[in-house]
Amino acid sequence: MKLRRKWTRVRKAPQAPQVTEMDEVPRPDWDSFETILSNFMENPEEAGFIFSIMIQVDPDSVVLKIANSLGTVHNTDQSREFNVALLTRLLTNQDLGTNWNNLSVSSQSTLKCVLLDRIMLEESKAIITRLCDIVSDLAVSLLPDNNWPELLPFLHKCLTDSTSNSCSRLSAFLLYAQLADKTGETVVGCVKDLHSLFLNTLNNDDTLNDLDVRITATMAVIRFIQCVSSLNEKAQFQDLLPGMMRTLTDVLSNNDLEDAAVNVLNLFIELARNEPKFLRRQLVVIVGTMFEIAENKSLEEEIRHLAVEFMLTLVEAKEKVPGMMKKVPLFTNTCFAILLNLTLDIKDEPRFHTAEPVWNNDEPSWHCTEKQHEVSGATKSCSFGLNCLKRLSIALGGKTVTPIAMEQLPSYLVAPEWEKRHAALLAIAQISEGSSKVQICHISVFVMITLG
Fold it and tell me: Domain IPO4/5-like TPR repeats: where (predicted)?
């Protein structure tokens, strides 16, 4: 999962008329280039026409001037965000002379230097993200043929130089993560050198307050784990897991970092989906932390749901790690109880007190899915819990889930709260999709309890 970011809409510049030998060639005023850029957002038609002429006359100069404008002190962050978004468009649009492949070798070399300089100095996280996107996209085609030999040494310097600030370290980790994702084979050789840097960043007391840097380092570690091929190579990252989990808990302890918490949890879900074996050695601790998050009602609903999603992702990875989750003490009991508790989040529905059906579908069925058979009054949390109960039952099978249901559901069926009785009946329907053959042997017990 990728970090959330705010995208800047770039207005498409009006197409200037193609200049022929018979036409009088307009002479753009290059000295007023920055003024034209600043007017682009306010008067896109007029500024865009002049801008298009400039692209026709000298596309290399246009690209370099925009790149250099990112370091202009008097430009606001908003205007610089616009400029970096415009630079991205110019470099990637195949129909423009400003496309990377159409630039001269000299301009390409200059632009690479400008981009790295800006990454070293930039403090706006939004612009850092955009710059890293540009660099990583270019690196995909340049690194395999060693056409950007300065890039990897530059990133290493950002992490080791005593003069580097947190923004340059964040940029370096972000670029390592992107390169591992987009062109893993070109950065695999950096793993040994990076390991100590990852370890120090995630565990060093001096960096504990740099949560953004630690989050980005966590992302880079997860991407590297996925891009190395052998189990031995993956195993060398094991000692980084405690620091990664510490980063997660530190983010959760800050109420102002909800988006960051979502990002980190999505990274762990990505790891669980693609590399579940990597988590085996420290599984009990990791699952215990996720249970605590899922049960913590002071956290936002989305965060609690993502912790549940992490566990369900591991349960469903049975082909890669058969039986792994069943070995975690009381995993199924605890997970079932958490999911059952989610289904209690339901609003009273007037039709509950009549003989009318409460399903938002004309087809009579007790099987509730997210779209076809939505339960009236069910909140997002309730629907999520019901869907996860079905997934848990299908993944673990009836022989594992049904005994747990027999332990936990009877108390719900006889509870004075209608929400619990309602939740129990829905749970019976949901888990039947994965355990019908086993459940049929016990259905009479549920019926007798329900009918009193």
Answer: 129-287
Contact 204, 247 (CB under 8 A): no
Is 53 a domain residue?
Answer: yes
pLDDT digits over 8-17, tens only? 444 454 454 4
Domains in the chain, number: 1
What lies within 8 Å, CB to CB, of 82 at 6+ separation is 8, 10, 40, 41
How far is C-alpha 175 from the chain's CA centre?
A: 15
Domain assignment of residue 6, given as a range: 1-144
Q: Residue 378 forms beta bridges with which residues?
A: 346
d(CA 341, CA 334): 11
Say how many C-beta atoms besides its own lie within 10 A of residue 236's C-beta. 14
Cβ-contact 68, 33 below 8 angstroms = no
Segment 109-137 shows an average pLDDT of 95
In-domain check, residue 335: no
The 3-state DSSP class for residue 184 equals helix
What is the band of 79 on the pLDDT scale with cuts at 50, 70, 90?
confident
The model's pTM = 0.84
* Cα dihedral 235→236→238→239 (10° resolution): 160
Residue 137 within any structural domain of the chain: yes
Query: Are 358 and 343 contacting, i.e. CB atoms less than 8 angstroms apart?
Result: no
Alpha carbon 11 to its chain's center: 27
